[in-house]
Design brief:
Largest sheet of chain B: none
CATH architecture of the largest domain in chain B: Orthogonal Bundle
CATH class of the largest domain in chain B: Mainly Alpha
Strand content of chain B: under 5%
Oligomer: heterodimer
Distance between the termini of chain B: 38 Å
Radius of gyration of chain A: 23 Å
Number of helices of chain B: 8
Largest sheet of chain A: 9 strands, antiparallel
Strand content of chain A: 25-35%
Number of strands of chain B: 0
Radius of gyration of chain B: 16 Å
Order of helices and strands of chain B: HHHHHHHH
Shape of chain A: elongated
Number of helices of chain A: 6
């Protein structure tokens, strides 16, 4: 990498860099310059923001019928695969994303990042379940699922989250929780309770300001479980959910 | 509020605008949610909203999809329609944040040839060379149009942050 690009040249190619349309070698030289020039980093950061806002102007559009369900099924399938394979890098189904990614400079111009873990699969599955239960379409496939609304422990009242569990195999459980009253920060443990009083520790995840979303593969028959609990590290039960059996029905469009 | 339901119109809208193809757009939109899920741990709330993050993922995937599939990145009539769509100001945009409103207004004020070049690069992911070929102009002219248009939008964004109103 020659690093020959100076500030003046960077100002010339910055817009194309920010939009991700520079050729590979031009981009490499520009990024090399950004590594050592804070002013140009800021310049490109602003241009990248302009590019994001430009894309943000694109109009929303109604997706095809059944889109939510297909997304949910895709995520569920991936949940099983990823847990079953314990992450097989580079293995993904054929599609547009298999090609080289666009050389956006976002990462290059941003320093250390604070990663905030957000799991989306629970929402996605919930979308499918809610829709299908509300108004079942013509079905071709039906799958069992365990669902439950989370309520604050001991206080009842408004729902603070959702639990979805796919009996499997492979079984998996997703939890989405927003404990708006507690602002709890830190690790919590999710337990699945059986009617006989025994429990399975499904796993741990972290809440930030009372919010967290998490999923994990769970061995065994999940229909044996009747409830889920979230417990803080000091043993306080934060929220509970009674699990009910339901069916996810999907129409193959 | 459930995640897919909340963001699907945005994600699909981006995918459909870039690809111009209903089926390809659905594939892209679905992959957007799958990628978001797989890479949720790298979402950085300081760098923008979840909406912005998903929009960016959808846009990148859509551009990749178009690049992999087509020799011509976009049809000229699609560009004109899209340019009209993003510069219109119906009531539903009234609630958009100030910076986005300023970018929209600035885009509408650009000379048409600059706006076209910017849309080709910024929305369809076309290189300056591709813009030059599509518009039948020299490469340097294409680069100048992209650069000038971006500079004007950057100024508009900066004005919005300062609370100015660009007229």
């Amino acid at each position: 990498m020659s690093g020959d690009v100076d500030c003046e040249q960077l100002r010339e190619i910055g817009p194309e860099l920010a939009l991700g349309v520079l050729s590979g070698w031009e981009r490499a030289e520009a990024v090399a310059h950004l590594d050592r020039c804070a002013d140009c980093r800021e310049y490109v950061r602003q241009l990248t923001q302009v590019g994001d806002r430009l894309v943000g102007l694109l109009p929303d559009r109604e997706p095809p019928p059944g889109f939510e369900t297909r997304v949910a099924r895709g995520l569920a399938r991936r949940a099983g695969v990823s847990e079953g394979q314990r992450r097989a890098p580079g293995r993904s189904r054929p599609g547009p994303h298999r090609g080289a990614r666009r050389p956006r400079v976002r990462v290059a111009v941003v320093g250390a990042t604070l990663a905030v873990a957000v799991g989306f699969a629970g929402w996605a599955i919930g979308t499918a379940v809610e829709e299908v239960v509300a108004s079942p379409p013509a079905t071709e496939q039906s799958e069992p699922v365990m669902v439950g609304d989370m309520t604050p422990a001991g206080r009842g009242g408004q729902d603070v989250g959702e639990v979805y569990a796919h009996p499997g195999p492979p079984g998996w459980v997703f939890v989405s929780v927003a404990l708006t009253g507690s602002r709890h920060d830190g690790p919590v443990t999710c337990y699945l309770d059986r009617p006989d009083g025994t429990s399975l520790r499904a796993g741990d995840f972290t809440l930030r300001d009372g919010h967290g979303n998490w999923g994990v593969a769970v061995p065994g028959d999940l229909t044996r479980y009747s409830a889920a609990r979230l417990v803080s590290s000091d043993g306080t039960v934060l929220a509970t959910a009674q699990l009910q059996k339901a069916q996810v029905t999907t129409s193959q469009a | 509020m459930l995640f897919v339901r909340r963001f699907q119109h945005r994600v699909f809208g981006v995918a459909r605008a870039v690809t111009g193809d209903q089926q390809l757009a659905e594939d892209v939109a679905q992959q957007t949610f799958e990628r978001a899920w797989r890479h949720a741990q790298i979402y950085d709330s300081r760098r923008g909203s979840v909406m912005t993050w998903l929009t960016s993922i959808a846009h990148n995937l859509a551009v990749d999809a178009v690049r992999a599939r087509r020799t011509e990145p976009m049809a000229p009539e699609d560009l004109e329609d899209l340019l009209d769509a993003v510069t219109e100001t119906p009531e539903r945009w009234a609630l958009a944040d100030e910076a986005s409103a300023q970018v929209r207004a600035a885009l509408a004020r650009l000379p048409r040839e600059q706006a076209r070049a910017l849309m080709m690069a910024g929305i369809y992911g076309m290189t300056a060379r591709q813009v030059a070929d599509a518009e039948r102009i020299p490469l340097g002219t294409a680069k100048t149009r992209i650069r000038t248009a971006m500079a004007k939008l950057r100024t508009a964004t900066a004005s919005a942050k300062r609370g100015d109103h660009v007229r």
